Amino acid sequence: MLRRASSWSLLLLVLLAGCSRCGKDSGPTGPAGKPASVERFLPRDAQAAIVVQDLGALGEKLARFQNLKIASFLAQLQNFQTAEAYVSAVMRQVGVDLRSRQAMEKAGIDPGKGAGAAFLSQTQAFSVLGVKDAKTLEETFSNLARNRLGAPERAEQKAGGGTLITFSRKGATTPQLGLLFIGDFVLVAPGSTVERLATFASQPSEKSLAEEPVLAASLGRLPKERDFHIYLPGGTDLVRPGTVQGLTLTGVIEERAVTLRADAPWPDTQQALAPLVPKEGPDLLGYLPADSFLVARYRGDPATLGGVWPYIVGPYVTRAVQQSNFDIKGEVLDNLQSGIAMGVALAPTAQFGSGIPELDIRRTSPFRYVQLMVVAEPKDVAKADATLARVPDIAGNFGAQVKPEDVGGKRVYLTSYRAGEGAHFAQAGGKLVLAAPRSRLEAALTGLAGKPGEFPLAQDLQGAMKDQVLSVVMDLRKLSDAVRNLPSEAWGIGGFAIKATALRWLEATDDLRAVTLNLSQKEKALQAEVSLKLTLPPAPQQPSSQPAPQPTEAK
Questions:
Q1: pTM summary value
Q2: Rounded distance, CA 38 to CA 46, Å?
Q3: Beta strands 125-130 and 153-159: pairing type?
Q4: How far apart are CA 423 and CA 435, in angstroms?
Q5: How far is residue 470's CA from residue 339's CA, in Å, rounded to a whole number?
Q6: DSSP string of 461-489?
Q7: Crossing angle, helix 83-94 and helix 69-76, to 10 degrees?
Q8: For residues 47 and 237, is the Cβ–Cβ distance under 8 A?
Q9: Exposed, middle or buried, 374 (CB in 10 Å: 0-12/13-18/19+)?
Q10: Coil vs helix vs strand at 17
């Protein structure tokens, strides 16, 4: 079983080792004469770079997640009983337990100074590590090179203002592993990247990540709390030329959430970010059905989406709109208020007898599996009614058929297309509604006639919808419960095996509470936040340190 973990050994040690070294060469300084940091040795023009603030803190946080059910489930797929057993196997092959600050220090690593890695191309990468004890750390890598890489031959030379130590196989011209000790740091690289370490160790500070202005500005706009950050410069294979100057990602790991934030300076005008400016509008979330597992709200001005909607709906719908000579901005977007809300629920009639369906809306109606409701409030109700009345005449350009019909005294527009039922729409109670299937539309007509109901999200998830311009919340627990409550016929004849497999996956994901997404803008930069909410298992109770009470002698 240990062989299964070996592919991760070198990767983990190269990417997750910490930094700080005593002794040997003094090394360069950071910007403005400050002590050098991990970023000082990472090049600005790398395809991507990652920096860990405190390797010890990150390792201890990550160690908690090996107790998640999903982690143990995935470990069992690798023939390990638990995730803890799998991770322990990997740590044994690395030669140091990266989950423990004390273990890293014992291996010669100072985890408190962070770690870094630069990805130069698809085949070349190196790390910047810190050293608590140079001799001990060299021995750690020496054991790895000898036992895992088959490279026992050691060589040493001066290079890049420091000391370069390489480990090679007998008779080989290219080393398998190289360490360049300089100041308080060591640069680590495999294979052909070793010969480039001297260049990065001696590079001018202005060519390093320490003086990257785009990164510095992004980190200034993002929250200070972070465990690591990643920088992808513009004009590379990962961030194509002509898009943005650079993309900065930060990650923070908390007890009940893992959050990734992104910041990219916007290359266009400030006006182009107008769709991400929040506007006051009606709160329509209370009209969404309570069984919605996916809830979204847009608090920007829909009138600013004139140049954005083609990217949202796709080329097929865009061509159909253009062929219909229908003015989306003037007829629809300019007449909508802020606060558009959407809810998606699992359809109780969903059929999974053939497994997970391929949701290609051109061939399969998605409303066989989910129920949809979108609600918005128009500025001019009469204009909205006139716009709805035009839709049946242009529906043919979309490959659909729309028929007006009266339901409960309300004019509704029912949609169908080749694959089945489409999304229906109507105006009721001064609000526009788009819903499917028909039963959901009819229920919406009744609900919109009254006051909004309770918030469709659980109390612990409502905070994700408060201040952001665009917010999306997927309640994984509600989705899981909906799948569990499907009737037996949803799994088809003899579908007990499919249901058992589905339930096994659901049980493995019990610890995953929700996924949230938020989009916003700040100081002419586009920002996004994705968070995975967790429900961690209770920590094991520690045995009491107090001595057990002694029986007293009866008098």
A1: 0.85
A2: 14
A3: unpaired
A4: 5
A5: 10
A6: GGGGGSS-SEEEEEEHHHHHHHHHTS-GG
A7: 70
A8: yes
A9: buried
A10: coil
- Phi, psi of 446, rounded to the nearest 5 degrees: -70, -45
Look up tokens 């919605």; give the residue. 292
409: amino acid identity, one letter: G
Taking only the tens place, the pLDDT of each residue in 364-382 is 889 989 999 999 999 999 9
3-class DSSP state for residue 455?
Answer: coil
Averaged pLDDT, 84-113:
84
Q: Which residues contact 331 (CB under 8 A, 6 or more apart)?
A: 387, 390
Cβ atoms < 10 Å from Cβ of 72? 18
User: Do 351 and 420 meet the contact criterion of CB atoms below 8 Å apart?
Assistant: no
Q: How far apart are CA 439 and CA 368, in angstroms?
A: 12
Q: Which two tokens stand for residue 16?
A: 């997750």
Considering only residues 35 and 166, tell me which one the structure prediction assigns the higher pLDDT. 166
Cβ count within 10 A of residue 282: 17
Report the DSSP beta bridge partners of residue 517.
Answer: 472, 530
**Dihedral Cα 141, 139, 55, 203, nearest 10 deg:** -70
How many C-beta neighbours within 10 Å does residue 513 have?
A: 20
The two tokens of residue 523 are: 């100081």
Task: Point out which residues pair with 233 in neighbouring strands.
Answer: 246
CA distance 482 to 143: 52
pLDDT digits (tens, 9 = 90+) for 412-464: 999 999 888 999 999 999 999 999 999 999 999 999 988 888 889 999 998 88
Mean pLDDT in residue range 213-232: 95
Q: 196: which 2 tokens?
A: 């480039």
pLDDT: which is higher, 525 or 538: 525
The helix-helix angle for 496-508 and 476-484 (nearest 10°) equals 160
Residue (of 196, 30, 39) closest to 124 by Cα position? 196
- As given in the structure block, the two tokens for residue 30 are 């950071």
What is the rounded distance in angstroms from the CA atom of residue 295 to the CA atom of residue 269?
A: 31
For residue 153, list its beta bridge partners: 168
Helix axes 2-15, 134-147, angle to 10 degrees: 140
Nearest residue to 271 (alpha-carbon basis) of 239, 308, 240, 246: 308
Q: Which helix (H) or strand (E) holds 442?
A: helix 438-448
Integer Cα distance of 343 and 347 in angstroms: 12
